[in-house]
Amino acid sequence: MAVTLDQIKNLREATGVSMMSCKKALEEANGDLDKSIDILRKKGEAKAVERIGKNTSQGAVVVKTKDNKAVMVELLCETDFVSRGEDFLVLADKLADKLLAGEIKPSDRDLPEVKDAVLKFGENIQIGDMCVCEGETLGNYVHSNKKIGVVVSLKGGNTELAKDIAMHAAATNPLFKFPEEVSEDLVKREKAIWTEQLKTEGKPAEIIEKIMMGKEKKFREENALVKQMFVKNPEKSIEQLLKDGGAVLENFVRFGI
User: Fold this and answer.
1) Are 152 and 138 in contact (CB under 8 A)?
2) Each residue of 94-129: pLDDT tens digit?
3) Which of the four pLDDT bands, split at 50, 70 and 90, describes residue 1?
4) At what angle do helices 5-15 and 33-42 cross, to 10 degrees?
5) What is the pLDDT of residues 197-233, one digit of tens each?
């Protein structure tokens, strides 16, 4: 099928691969951008990249806590100008306060405050996500630009430890808590790419399986919070940090705009 120049530009921006290679990959994938990325990766022309089509909206993330309860709200808008405005941040705070008080639920979206904001700001305003976390020990971190927020729940430990782990998760964006939680579909997809790469490199069939086992282990650990090396002390893993602090990771939630 014929592909558009915009599709080619989007694929090039995501992968850094030449326009011609992007065009060929898109044609082979019938215009599917995600499949095009996989085609380029299998050919060794592109490394792992974030999937195209991610949310590019502006907005802010707010966290509020009380006792053993924390809530996080992701409020979205169209422009950075609005997202940095005091009135917009006040609205995000108000929604978080209501969520913390139990006046609204994480699944609520059709709220009068949000409808009023659309008229007030003159652009699309909507709730991206909301969550409620409860636990023995809670810690949170919101990046200075208010675009990333994380809440961490621990059993044992202390608030400072939970906050350190939240800050780490904000920086590294782990997808799972533990290696065994990495989805089989995700691993299967990566294995298909690794297999093609190894064949292209001319690796003997008898050692490909061993190499694949090592790659899977590494992939699972890279995407699991507890196995990552702590950003403030790269000689220590989050797992070791938790052990030293007498804590067990129960959950973490990360919002990013």
Assistant:
1) yes
2) 999 999 999 999 999 989 999 899 888 888 899 999
3) low
4) 50
5) 888 888 887 788 888 889 999 999 999 999 999 999 9
Res 40 pLDDT > 80: yes
Element (H, E) at 250: strand 247-256
The fold of 5-42 is: Helicase, Ruva Protein; domain 3 (1.10.8)
CATH code given to domain 55-134 = 3.30.479.20
Report whether 45 contacts 12 (CB < 8 A): no
- Quote the CA–CA distance of 223 and 178 in Å, as a whole number: 8
Sign of the Cα pseudo-torsion (38, 257, 58, 103, in order): positive
Q: Please check whether residue 256 is in contact with residue 147, taking contact to mean a CB–CB distance below 8 angstroms.
A: yes
| Tokens coding 255 | 């919002």
Q: 211: which residues sit within 8 A by CB, 6+ positions away?
A: 194, 198, 203
Alpha-carbon distance values, 237 to 119, 139, 165, 180, 219 (Å): 48, 18, 11, 17, 16
Helical H segments across the chain, by residue range: 5-15, 19-28, 33-42, 80-83, 86-101, 112-121, 159-172, 184-200, 205-222, 238-244
pLDDT in tens, 159-206: 999 999 999 999 999 999 999 998 888 888 888 888 888 888 888 877
Both tokens of 214, joined, read 């090592």
Give the start-to-end residue ranges of the domains of the chain: 5-42, 55-134, 183-222
Q: Which of 101, 37, 92 is nearest to 61 (CA)?
A: 92
Residue with tokens 């691969």: 17
| Cβ proximity of 50 and 10 under 8 Å | no
Q: What is the pTM of this model?
A: 0.72
| Sign of the CA dihedral running 138, 242, 227, 181 | negative
